[in-house]
User: What shape does this take?
Amino acid sequence: MLIQKVPEKNSVLFVWLNQYAGILLKTPSKTIAIDPVDVKVKSLQNVDAILITHEHYDHLDPRLITEIQKVTNCIVIADSASTKKLQYTIPADKLQEAKLGDELKIGAVKVKVEKCNHPAQAPVTYIITSEDDVKVYHTADSLPFPELALMGKKEKFDMVFCTVGISPGASAQTGFEIAWLTKPQLAVPYHTALSANQTEFADMLKKELPRTACLIPEQNKIYQVSKRK
Ligand SMILES: [Zn+2]
Assistant: This one.
């Protein structure tokens, strides 16, 4: 899924790439793939950066990352366990280890590395702030955790991706709790193969958190999201 369009000012475009946490995000200046698996190299041939949250098969495919990196010469930012798996095939100057609390830059796009509540070696989540200040929180397949509440207050997220299935312990309810804690402008239920999980999530939001809109994404479709007014 190549995104040919450029987002309007104060907006970003995104595509949900697979049934997991695979997201392609495009700001006015940068194209970023997060946890791409089950995708063709061809569809990511214009990425500037790849972000990896943890080493599980549904988030990290070292062969695919290596191929994309070769074709695009993009930078790869990854948690420490994934960095270890990528260090022999990604050039050292293109591979960056993401540690909790890091504030990284991809040109004018900022990436903040946050905690992740998931049984992996050193999982992280990423707050991505576009050059015109659209704030996107990619929570990998994290379960809720208390610090999300403060983060939501501080960051005022425009969009938060919420896991509603597949992962251990994850459900529409835990996805809803992530939205409830972070209170974004827009919540996007993902990481599921069942649309019932997504509609259940949407129903809970509508009832309990009416000021947060819900976008149930279709895979491989382009969506534009604008900054909160
Ligand atoms: Zn997962």
Summary: The pocket of zinc ion is lined by residues 20-21, 56, 58-59, 141, 167, 191 (CB under 6 Å). Residues 62 and 85 are 7 Å apart (CA to CA).
